[in-house]
Design a protein that fits this description.
alpha/beta; seven-stranded parallel sheet; two-stranded parallel ribbon; transmembrane helix
Length: 457
Amino acid sequence: MLTPYQPFQLASIPHDVRKYSLEVADSIDRQVDHVANVIRDTLSKQSWIPPSVRPPTRSFPNAGSSGSQSFADRVQAWMLRNRAWSAAIIAFASTTCVLYFGGKKLHGKRRKAKRALSGARKEIVVVAGLAHEPATRSIASDLERRGYIVYVTVSSAEEEQIIQSENRPDIRPLWLDLTASSSPNDLHPSLHGIRSLITQPQSPVVGVPPHTCQLSGLIIVPSPNYVTGPVATIPPSSWVDTVNTRLLSPILTTQHLLPLLTLRNNNSTIVFVYPSISSSLSAPFAGPEVSVTRALSGFATSLRREMRLLHQGTVNVVELKLGNVDFGTQHRGAQNQIVGTEVLAWSEQQRALYGPQYLSSIEQRPVATVGPSKVRGSPAKSLHYAVLDALEPPSRDIFGRKTPKQPVIYVGRGARSYNLIGRWIPGGLVGWMLGLQSGPHPSFASSSSSETGWEKV
């Protein structure tokens, strides 16, 4: 017989005990159901049981008909139904990832010289150019900062002093007398030191494993400053000096260094650095520059094809065609010099024939050194990056095959655009852009009003 206080006693059972009891009961029910389902499925698949007493097979609902399915479940169900399409999509995505990340890894820019295991420098680069030129000094300094041993060709004590004033032990002067009579089959006497570095093991410190250096490149940097003016007004001595210093000297320097560049089976590059705007436009009053740069480009093309015929094929030839490059404020003083004063040295007839057109062309010339004051070039680091990319060994694709180097690299503002203009725009329109007119001479007022006409191109 229940007492009146029994409901109160049931209510006094702690809430947590009742909760845990219900969970245990639910867990037991689920386990029993699971065991029953397993037994039912197992018995339904047994062939020895008569069909009359064999339990029926459970039917599962369609995966696409469930509204509560997650996106991942629906994708998985679709992949199970369309296995061929799924395999094709996975293969395409995998191949794309391999090509992208593999190509990015293979074509990554190192832009630093290789070093020996001891950390010593081992890559040598020879820079052939005038020591007082901004381009020569800028390229040599940047290469030295990136771990190269840099030799700069000199031909006088003044140039040697300029190199030594850099106070960098890995920027070294290289006396190279191109007028010395020597057979092409003999190595130039000044190059025996470099030959020793690339053929004999070098040990910078006692106890450090020795290493052998390698000649990675030759960079030809002729002076970009040319005599300008009508052909009739340029003296023969200027033509001779231009051809000797900016065309013949690079050719002879290349000839002297070729035995060292082909001595070992390592990748090396010959880089020609020269201005290209005037030659691309075939600009008037720039005969020496157009003649020399086009001749130098032809020589580089011929040499490139000659090097490809070698059995090793390890010497590459790259041309860096320069536009306007800014080497900093310390080198802009020359841009403010008074130009056009050479007209005063002409005869009266020459001033009457060429004077107005020549002075008008100076104002419109798209070169920062002599053109409008608003013309500014690309930063010098664009030239540094182009030189380093040219010195890099040929890259390989994902199949391990060497990809050929880009034979021509355009560097600086206007290099590529003026090349396209000179190639595709009619000559008359190019002359109009240069501020030139045939027939009556234009007035100076009208020519000065379009001072920045080239900046709009």
